[in-house]
Amino acid sequence: MSLRVTSPSAELVRRGRESLDFARSQMPVLDAIQAEAAVNRPLEGHRISGCIHLTKETGVLVELLLAAGAEVAWTGGDEVSTQDDVAAALADQGVRVFGRRGITTRQVEEAAAEALTAFPSGPTLVLDNGSRLIETVLGDRDRFPELLAATEKTTEGSRRVREWNRQGRLDFPVVTVNDIVTKWEVDNTYGTGQSTVDGILRATGALIAGKRFVVVGFGHVGRGVALRAAGLGARVIVTCRSATTAVQARLAGYEVLPLRQAAAVADILCTATGYPDVVRGHHLDLLPSGAVLCNTGHSVTEINLAELQARTEEVREVRPHVRRHVLAGGRYVDLLSGGGLVNLDAAEGNPSEVMDVTFANQALAALRLGRDAAALQPGLHEVSGEQDQEVARRKLVAMGIDYDGTE
């Protein structure tokens, strides 16, 4: 059965329209880019398949692509991130939307496959999050002969794209919209850091002050989570595999421990690595009774849920977004958002003001590909430092902030 959103109710469309309008009011940079693109229509004739969390902010990006002339198919690419009202409002505008909130991991894959094959001749451009669609294309290139280029916006997805490029597998250009200051620092550190702690608070109602808050991973997302948790008075402990990031965490004032030691004292444990199976059964065996376990890294893979289930004697839904796993001897851990992305499930994802910057970069990359994809060499391409600076300048203007560079 297809996962396409069809015939949404008028009420759901109305609510989605309100959500999109609210997000747009907080995204002046993206709104200005859309106004320019609506005149020039650089995506006229293009067919875009996208796989990025379908929040109200992503919806504003999709509306920009429509205004620029593209046909669009979209999926959220995650079990919990799709906002159904936004999906309804976009479907009402003719976007081919696949998936809904609360689907299974298998259905996530099915929805992604439908989005990628939504057009009879396939997409001409792909906008990806985690490189799911790009991987599918590389595995069956003959099915997508008209694909010209793609973008990838995540740290883990960019890592995979770089590996494929080293292997010589990329026979079309892929622009990574991740390794720039306005993405790493604004989105990952300040955006995801805040929205993750927001999700934990909404789900649990817990007092953070005084708690031993273990952050697994100290990349840009992990740093943001640690910063916000510490700001609320948590005793932050960082675990990481890299010596350089361990030094950074220590110099930032956090305790640094191996995960096996940190797990044994954790009141709250949050993964933020982008890698699968970071928390395994032997870590779960060490968690104190009552520990809160959550993930803000990538999909539902960072916590090994099969090994948690194997140790579980009873599961209770004690609050929305909180599943209590009762283990041997009456010990229990509270799993948030089913191990999925807590900031997108229990909260609303990153603030609109943050995604204004990220999606401005995404939009500019897509618009450039609409004009120039045929002229780009196959392989990996980075967003230029000039574009990074331009997006930052636009954001400062929107915020009414002067700085020395404006003189």
Automatic annotation (TrEMBL):
Organism encoding this protein: Streptomyces citricolor
Gene: ari10
Cofactor annotation comment: Binds 1 NAD(+) per subunit.
Signal peptide: none
Positions annotated to bind NAD(+): G219, H220, V221, G222, R223, G224, N343
Entry superkingdom: Bacteria
Protein's UniProt keywords contain Nucleotide-binding: no
Stated name of the protein: S-adenosyl-L-homocysteine hydrolase
Cited InterPro entries: Adenosylhomocyst_ase-like_sf, Adenosylhomocysteinase-like, Ado_hCys_hydrolase_NAD-bd, NAD(P)-bd_dom_sf, S-Ado-L-homoCys_hydrolase_CS
Keyword Hydrolase found: yes
GO annotation, biological process: one-carbon metabolic process; S-adenosylmethionine cycle
Positions of the S-adenosyl-L-homocysteine hydrolase NAD binding domain: 188-349
Family annotation (Pfam families): AdoHcyase (PF05221), AdoHcyase_NAD (PF00670)
Keywords assigned by UniProt, alphabetized: Hydrolase, NAD, One-carbon metabolism
Needed cofactors: NAD(+)
PANTHER family in the cross-refs: ADENOSYLHOMOCYSTEINASE
One term under GO cellular component: cytosol
